[in-house]
Design a protein that fits this description.
Blueprint lengths: L3 H11 L4 E5 L5 H9 L4 E5 L3 H8 L10 H9 L3 E4 L10 E4 L14 H13 L5 E4 L7 H10 L11 E4 L18 E5 L2 H12 L5 E3 L3 H32 L3 H8 L23 H9 L7 H27 L8 E5 L14 H11 L3 E5 L23 H6 L2 E4 L8 H7 L3 E3 L14 E3 L1
Parallel strand pairs: 1-2, 1-4, 2-3, 4-5, 5-6, 7-8, 9-10, 9-11, 11-12, 12-13
Antiparallel strand pairs: 6-7
Length: about 450
């Protein structure tokens, strides 16, 4: 089945005697590296961020839910090394590409990181390597974009080197599912590539799910996140309607959830955050235009979810007005900068858009997040703020406390006791009817 060159790689994979390279050591690449390291497989990490390289060399984790003990153990054992020297990409037998795939300002796919990585690999690509793209993208990227870049090396994909796609499925902070026990979907450009990629992941993961092609694997990831985006948009739209009707949407969802079949609960929020749901659906809408197919559900869901920060700001304004205060000059304390609870991940967090909108309307904003002590510059924002202490005085001095991320570390009884006005986007105060005029749902 394999060419002579790839048969050697197959033998290495079956004997777990291969070296793995992981390109991009962020929220996907670092947990992926550790998953293989725990199986005794040597890993070389590649990243352009010198601070990440330095942290790994010192055995220090820069991601909150990953213990430093894990890193330091493997660094000390010489199993894990990190480098910014991409000329070493020919050293590993297998390379996993875990680089960002953002959107442009016009919501078009931005593949520059995949393209630059492909060119870097092509410069040193050797026969017998396996390349797997894990970055979320539209169907066709692996064969239409990455494969031609790699073949500029003069080597032929599927014969001289193997090429596959396997979507990442990381869920930072999830106590039940990590990289090892989340089923791994894999699709290669030909049967040889697919089999080799399956062998690679089987060395470290509980279950590998083969599919017919890279395109199927790419579409699988998009379907997963489009499914979530559309359903979140549905409950966000119903939230707005229910508020107008005087109905508690959270109680409605809880009641519907008692049905043991045909229903899955989704919850409203202040907007979408993270590296997947706010971005991935638009990768498919862009590709669909090439086929003259309108993706109406996806685009409508995107519009609804994108509008939610504006809705929340209006609710803040209404709540302040009910307290005889104007938005301009109001002191608004935002609780949570992370995009989800109990993590230090602020990628695409709706908190940033809320900060922008509140500032534009004249509010004096501060924030608190026990997991994010300072707001680093991100793609579109640079607020330069540090986390405000959550003291009795700071709560009392705030005209409005806006709950955006429901971290478990927050003492909500303390917040309720000392804040004069709360706007709650996460249903923290489910018994808010006990506090009329003080707690508002948004």
């Amino acid at each position: 089945m394999h060419s002579e060159t790839l048969t050697t790689l197959a033998d290495k994979l079956s004997g777990k005697s291969f070296t793995l390279g992981v390109i991009g050591l962020g929220y996907v690449g670092l947990p992926l590296s550790l998953t293989f390291l725990r199986k005794g497989i040597k890993v070389i990490g590649f990243d352009l961020d010198p601070s990440k390289i330095a942290n790994i060399e010192q055995g220090q984790s820069y991601i909150k839910h990953i213990p430093s003990e894990d890193l330091s153990r493997f660094v000390t054992q010489k199993l894990f090394a990190a480098t910014a020297d991409f000329s070493r990409l020919n050293e590993p037998d297998c390379l996993l590409i875990c680089v960002p795939t953002p959107l442009t300002n016009n919501r078009e796919p931005d593949l520059k990181y995949i393209e630059s990585t492909g060119r870097a690999i092509a410069k040193v690509l050797r026969p017998g390597q396996l390349i797997v793209l894990e970055s979320t993208t539209y169907p066709g990227t692996t064969v239409e974009i990455l494969q031609p870049l790699l073949e500029e090396s003069g080597l032929k994909a599927g014969v001289d080197f193997a090429l596959a796609f396997s979507p990442e499925r990381e869920d930072p902070g999830n106590p039940h599912f990590g990289t090892a026990n989340i089923p791994k979907v894999v699709g290669g450009i030909n049967p040889s590539s697919s089999n080799l990629a399956q062998s690679l992941y089987a060395a470290a993961m509980d279950r590998v799910v083969p599919v017919a092609s890279t395109q199927v694997a790419e579409m699988t990831k998009l379907l997963e996140n489009i499914f979530r985006s559309v359903n979140i948009a549905l409950v966000n739209e119903l939230k707005v309607l229910c508020l107008r009707m005087g109905i508690d949407i959270w109680e409605v969802i809880d009641a519907a959830s008692t049905k043991p079949f045909g229903y899955m609960p989704f919850y409203p929020g202040p907007g979408l955050g993270g590296h997947c749901i706010p971005i991935d659906p638009f990768y498919l809408t862009s590709k669909a235009r090439e086929y003259d197919i309108p993706t109406k559900f996806i685009e409508l869901a995107g519009e609804i979810n994108t509008s939610m920060p504006y809705f929340v700001v209006q609710r803040v304004m209404d709540a302040l007005n009910n307290h005889g205060k104007a938005m301009k000059g109001a002191k608004v304390l935002i609780l949570g900068a992370a995009y989800k609870k109990n993590v230090d991940d602020d990628r695409e967090s709706p908190s940033y858009k809320l900060m922008e909108l509140l500032t534009e309307r004249g509010a004096d904003i501060r924030y608190n997040d026990p997991h994010i002590p300072t707001l680093r510059p991100v793609r579109k924002y640079n607020f330069g703020l540090t986390s405000t202490l959550l003291t009795e005085e700071n709560l009392r001095q705030s005209d409005c406390v806006l709950i955006v991320t429901d971290h478990d570390a927050y003492d909500y009884d303390f917040i309720l006791q000392h804040a004069s006005l709360i706007v709650d986007t996460k249903n923290v105060f489910a018994d808010r009817l006990k506090y009329p005029g003080k707690v508002y749902m948004a």
